[in-house]
Amino acid sequence: MTQTLTLIQPDDWHIHLRDGDALATTVPHAANSFNRVICMPNLVPPVKTTEQAVAYRERILTALANSVISDDRKSAFDPRMVLYLTDHTTAEEIRLAKASGVVQAVKLYPAGATTNSADGVTDILGRACVFEAMQQIGLPLLVHGEVTHADVDIFDREKRFLDEILSVIIANFPELKIVMEHITTADAADFCLAQKDNVAATITPQHLLFNRNHMLVGGVKPHYYCLPILKRADHQKRLLEVATSGNPKFFLGTDSAPHATHTKESACGCAGCYSAVHALPLYATAFESVGALDKMENFASRFGANFYGLPINQTTITLAKQDQVIADAYDYLDGKTLTPLLAGQTLAWTQIS
Ligand code: NCD
Ligand code: ZN
């Protein structure tokens, strides 16, 4: 008998859907597995206001309506929006965001940290009035946790952010809900564990499955390149431990981040792994690798919803221990392609319903 794993329908608390024609590819891929998705706002230009977030959500829903997935999946899909924090965001904008009912959080990108982050914050504590308002009304702050100074080694950027920035934010705003997005180090996992319940973290499938050797040994493999960058194996091991520990501070956020194939396979390749299509089989592979499949449902389907104060989904999905060959590429934009993480390779798990 084939082994199966049935889970409450998961949510993805960190995804990049992009905009325009990209939505025709990314939205059905995400909607096939997830009900709620936290849509990252690093568009060009970024989603800075509630009005822009509401309009972006409408474009996502139009792409959903035009896609060929089942009516059940269409009606269950619920994009949750995020404002991109800039040096000019106001407390009034935070109140509008909360009142909208569709803006779920505010994202802090240190300026220059990652893809499309040039408008990010340069003086983080200069935004105290915004953090104050968020703390007061319970709107979470999502952080891309890396410092960006040119003189800081790329492998140390997350740790330096914890020491120099995040600990200061938490000291000044102790009740602010914070999600440390896509953590990549034991330092970040342990930092999160040391905080109160209002600080949580998302973990991607790539940071559970891989370390920097996968990306760099035997040739540079650009489809493993994302930010924050894959770290050493002992960090990967610690992330696997906390993700499978049953601690509600750690939950699913794929950070699926599409870039056209030619922009990743380049002399200056873009950062981001595309995992939206097969995210759940990837996570199942990671959880199974440490004998913890029984811990996956809470990580994927309960802890994030609880943190955000949203109801647990009513439907289920089922994975089977059945080989699948990951597609080499998907059609993307006008005549381009999108190469998924582990393209052409075989995964031992498949989402069957
Ligand atoms: C993301 C993207 O491409 O938008 N890239 C990535 O490597 N993760 C941005 C981000 O989340 O840092
Ligand atoms: Zn991201």
Provide a compact summary of the structure.
Strand 5 (103-108), helix 5 (128-137) and strand 6 (141-143) form a beta-alpha-beta unit. The protein has 13 helices and 15 strands. With 353 residues, it is α/β, with parallel strands linked by helices.
Explained architecture:
The protein is an alpha/beta fold and 353 residues long. It is built from 13 helices and 15 strands. The strands form 4 sheets. An 8-stranded parallel sheet has the order 2-3-4-5-6-7-8-9. Strands 1-10-15 form a 3-stranded antiparallel sheet, with helices on one face. α5 links the parallel β5 and β6. α1 packs across α2 and α4 runs parallel beside α5. The chain is globular and about 55 Å long. The mean pLDDT is 97. Bound molecules: N-carbamoyl-L-aspartate and zinc ion. The site of N-carbamoyl-L-aspartate has 11 residues, from loops.
Low-confidence stretches: none
N-end to C-end Cα span: 17 Å
Which percent range fits the helix content? 25-40%
Shape: globular
Order of H and E elements: EEHEHHEHEHEHEHEHHHEHHHEEEEEE
SSE blueprint and pairings:
Layout: E1 4-8, E2 12-15, H1 23-31, E3 36-39, H2 50-65, H3 71-76, E4 78-84, H4 91-100, E5 103-108, H5 128-137, E6 141-143, H6 157-172, E7 178-180, H7 186-193, E8 199-203, H8 205-209, H9 212-216, H10 233-243, E9 250-252, H11 261-264, H12 279-289, H13 296-308, E10 316-320, E11 324-325, E12 330-332, E13 336-338, E14 346-347, E15 350-351
Parallel strand pairs: 2-3, 3-4, 4-5, 5-6, 6-7, 7-8, 8-9
Antiparallel strand pairs: 1-10, 10-15, 11-14, 12-13
Helix pairs in contact: 1-2, 4-5
The chain binds N-carbamoyl-L-aspartate and zinc ion (ZN).
